[in-house]
Amino acid sequence: MGFDPKALKYNEAGLIPAIAQDSKSGEVLMMAWMNAEAVAKTLETQKVTYWSRSRQSFWIKGETSGHVQKLVDFRYDCDQDCILVLVEQTGAACHTNRRTCFYTAVRDGETVELMKPLED
Predict the structure, then answer these.
(1) Does the predicted TM-score (pTM) go above 0.90?
(2) Domain locations in the chain?
């Protein structure tokens, strides 16, 4: 019997957090949300597909920007309430055109920007 996306534990809105990590470097790229259908689409197409809460529609990463996430491995945690997608990232993962969404740190009580946007 195959994997059923509905077996995962979704929140009251029917969503589960999905963390994208670069499959080669291990760098954490971003966090977004998936519903059961986005999970199924991701597994079927090997193109990471999220659920956009603001647009209330599917969002295939890179569909408009070209910064695609090709699925390398799909994992979920022991509680089945969080997903880890290991990806082959093309270009920036963040909508700010940075490699990762996690480019801001707090050091000695100050906000520090760790990276600049990628150049096109």
Answers:
(1) yes
(2) 5-91
